[in-house]
Design goal:
Tetramer of two alpha and two beta subunits. This protein is α+β, with helices and mostly antiparallel strands. It has eleven helices and ten strands.
Length: about 350
């Protein structure tokens, strides 16, 4: 039995040294140290030994097991190190190679224009107000001097959800809500950016969803000259210090008087070109003095307070500012288009 154990030890140690991968090494461990291994088989014959020989054989068997286990552990450590070295050699990184550039995102041109306009008016003392895009008929129309059945409602073909609920057709409801919040006490000085919705056929210059920025100022002794001065500052900051504006009579139900506002063409300097249709002027927004009915419905005394309001489309501003010829470019998510507007 002693010879058998010694022979098994020598065989196992030779196989362990010859093993060249972890799988083979594990098979050797199971083969020699497992419950069905040859060492266990030898020990089953210990019952035939005398009482004096059994302790000696038990000690020898434990010594053989420990020798094999120690050899397996040492071999496994060597194989692990070799595997790591091999992996490192295969995955060597050439640190002298140039790094891959990290692509960074950039602002959408409409977002850039909105933020530029917001910054301009914030510096002029305005605050930014927002409101719900799903609006009530009252705030979208009635509070703005557009009672039910008013013909001017046809100017804004609307998406109605119920008879009294719709997707807002302009950001003017934010003005109405803000005026009510002030409870008839001025001053009010706000701009209202946001999405609006109208039933329109999408083409190069129209979309069923677009953005607006409207402004509102209410205080004592506000006049048309305050409106004109404000819009002159806006035009010069957005389109260049040489720009001039002109006001043309128009009609909006919530302002009286109402005007369309043109800016001198920044392409030809007012001499006439294809951009301004040979007129030297480009229409950029609508404006006017807040209608007394609108003031009264919001709780303001129209004999004490007056105000002006204006509204513009950031898409149109962006198209003019950057020479974009189709509004659909803003919504098709073409990266070739969007990458042209990276900020410095």
């Amino acid at each position: 039995m002693q010879e058998q154990l010694k022979q098994l030890q020598l065989e196992a140690l030779e196989k362990i040294q010859a093993a060249n991968d972890l799988k083979s090494l594990n098979e050797i461990r199971v083969s020699y140290l497992g419950k069905k291994g040859p060492i266990t088989e030898v020990l089953r014959g210990m019952g035939k030994l005398s009482a004096e020989e059994r302790p000696l054989m038990g000690a020898l068997a434990n010594e053989v097991r420990e020798s094999i286990a120690t050899s397996i552990s040492a071999k496994q450590e060597g194989l692990d190190e070799a595997a790591i070295e091999e992996k490192l050699a295969a995955e060597t990184i050439d640190v002298t190679l140039p790094g891959r550039p990290v692509r960074t995102g950039n602002h959408h041109p409409i977002t850039s224009v909105i933020e530029e306009i917001e910054d301009l008016f914030l510096n002029m003392g305005y605050s930014v107000e927002e409101g719900p895009e799903v609006e009530t008929d009252y705030f979208n129309f009635e509070a703005l001097n557009l009672p039910k059945g008013h013909p001017a409602r046809d100017m804004q073909d609307s998406f109605y959800i119920t008879e009294e609920t719709l997707l807002r057709t302009h950001t003017s409801p934010v003005q109405a809500r803000t005026m009510q919040k002030f409870k008839g006490q001025g001053p009010v000085k706000i701009i209202c950016p946001g999405k609006v919705y109208r039933r329109d056929n999408d083409d190069a210059t129209h979309s069923h969803q677009f953005t607006q920025i409207e402004g509102l100022v209410i205080d004592e002794n506000i006049s048309m000259s305050d409106l004109k001065g404000t819009l002159e500052v806006f035009a010069k900051k957005m389109f260049g210090e040489e720009r001039e504006i002109r006001l043309r009579p128009s009609f909006f139900p919530f302002t009286e008087p109402s005007v369309e506002v043109d800016v001198s063409c920044f392409v030809c300097g007012g001499n006439g070109c294809s951009v301004c249709k040979r007129t030297g002027w480009i229409e950029i927004l609508g404006a006017g003095m807040v209608h007394p009915n609108v003031l009264e419905m919001a709780g303001f005394d129209s004999k004490k307070y007056s105000g002006f309001a204006f509204g513009m489309g950031p898409e149109r501003i962006a198209m003019l500012k950057y020479g974009i010829d189709d509004i659909r470019h803003f919504y098709t998510n073409d990266m070739r288009f969007l990458k042209q507007f990276k900020r410095a």
